[in-house]
Amino acid sequence: MLLLALIESQCDLNALIFRIIGIKMWIWEQDEWPNFAWDKSRIVPKLRDVRLHQGGLLGKMLCQTKNYKQSMLDTLLANIVH
After folding, report:
1. In principle, which of 18, 19, 42, 66 could form an S-S bond with 25, CB 3.0–4.6 Å?
2. What is the DSSP-derived secondary structure letter of residue 24?
3. ∠ CA 20-25-27, rounded to 5°
């Protein structure tokens, strides 16, 4: 409960600091909202890279067994043997 209160107070403090120094914290506070413009040549390669990594992560997740304790034990034993 105390940790949650500290986190909330830190978020409030950050929002206050941003307002004082004139930084807009939320996307809907931006002057261009919701009519943003972007450079497609800069974004497409980054999106392609993210999508590639997302597919790799999804593949790894789908290969995981349902029994996580057994998987951890197998990994520990494999590390000991090698």
Report:
1. 18
2. -
3. 145
